[in-house]
Amino acid sequence: MNILVFGGVGQLGQCIQKVAEQKNISDLIYLDEKEGNILDLELLKALFQQYTPSYVINCAAYTAVDKAEDEVEIARKVNKDGAANLAILSAEFDATLIHISTDFVFEGNQTGLLTEEDIANPVGVYGLTKLEGEIAIQETTQKYFTLRTSWLYSEFANNFVKTMIRLGKERSELGVIVDQVGSPTYAVDLAEVIIHIIESKSEAYGLYHFSNEGVTSWYDFATAIFELADLTVKVKALKTSEYPTKARRPFYSVMDKTKIKQNLGVAIPYWRDSLKVCLEELGN
Ligand SMILES: NC(=O)C1=CN([C@@H]2O[C@H](COP(=O)(O)OP(=O)(O)OC[C@H]3O[C@@H](n4cnc5c(N)ncnc54)[C@H](OP(=O)(O)O)[C@@H]3O)[C@@H](O)[C@H]2O)C=CC1
Ligand SMILES: Cc1cn([C@H]2C[C@H](O)[C@@H](COP(=O)(O)OP(=O)(O)O[C@H]3O[C@@H](C)C(=O)[C@@H](O)[C@H]3O)O2)c(=O)[nH]c1=O
């Protein structure tokens, strides 16, 4: 069984490699942007013909949230057209597509857990193009799992946890937004879910929410990172208006995970427990 992993050397791609190695699964082919550019339909066709994959995992994305505001065209190409290309070929070759989306598809002005049925209304270009990608997949193929996740971090690539540790070693004081609330997700936990979908041969296709369990703000997340990493940093709680960024971000994006727990039978770790695991991996 061949499994193609696009965006295979990004943060989540590396987490999938880690989990697959731990489980001795060697059917995955990890493609970087050059080997598996999801915008190059001819290249993709050749890959599908060569490998006739049973599963296609799309970890490739344009993830620079602020930069996307100025680079709408490229963000849309990667997040929408690239996802659509993989859906077209997955349908043609009868492969199951596992695609990753984001909590940033939500407007974030309501409280209460957000379900897969709640209306998405993104406030920024990144979230909008990711939503367009979700829709393109849903309209193109039937055998797909779209996993919406939030606030991904890990020992790999760039993410909020690694940024905080770097800044915490350089500075004694740091301002972090307190009025944006969500759920952090250890990308290795998400990788476990992806591998579980494949190993279980689940046919419960559709849209799913997955994050770690629990709720926090970026301020509380940063405070926990410093506490668990044993770094003495004074964290100042800032309002969003006191930390201006190019892109707007949802104020509230806590997702309901009932569907994934019921349909796929996954157990979900509490975010602080997973944060501890990641910090241990990072050597803190
Ligand atoms: N990071 C987060 O906090 C969250 C991420 N997500 C979603 O999870 C998924 C994985 O994210 P993550 O691993 O963190 O992101 P990364 O940015 O670490 O990885 C994305 C990868 O996609 C590659 N890529 C970009 N354009 C193309 C292309 N045209 N063809 C092939 N590969 C391409 C990038 O390569 P290069 O770097 O060389 O451009 C990079 O290696 C994405 O779908 C993202 O939207 C969802 C919620 C939170
Ligand atoms: C570095 C830093 C960030 N912040 C704020 C800005 C922002 O609101 C929040 C997170 O900042 P970052 O830029 O690290 O993260 P950001 O890129 O906004 O994270 C998002 O990425 C995309 C890809 C997703 O899909 C989302 O789920 C989410 O994880 O923390 C501070 O308040 N202080 C700081 O020193």
TrEMBL record:
NCBIfam families registered for this protein in UniProt: rmlD (TIGR01214)
Organism for this UniProt entry: Flectobacillus rivi
Top-level EC class as recorded in UniProt: oxidoreductase
Keyword Oxidoreductase applies: yes
Entry-linked InterPro entries: dTDP_dehydrorham_reduct, NAD(P)-bd_dom_sf, RmlD-like-bd
The RmlD-like substrate binding domain, residue ranges: 1-282
Pfam families per UniProt: RmlD_sub_bind
SUPFAM superfamilies: NAD(P)-binding Rossmann-fold domains (SSF51735)
Protein name: dTDP-4-dehydrorhamnose reductase
Catalyzed reactions per annotation: dTDP-beta-L-rhamnose + NADP(+) = dTDP-4-dehydro-beta-L-rhamnose + NADPH + H(+)
Transmembrane segments: none
Lineage of the species this protein comes from: Bacteria, Pseudomonadati, Bacteroidota, Cytophagia, Cytophagales
Molecular function as annotated in GO: dTDP-4-dehydrorhamnose reductase activity
Family the UniProt entry places it in: Belongs to the dTDP-4-dehydrorhamnose reductase family.
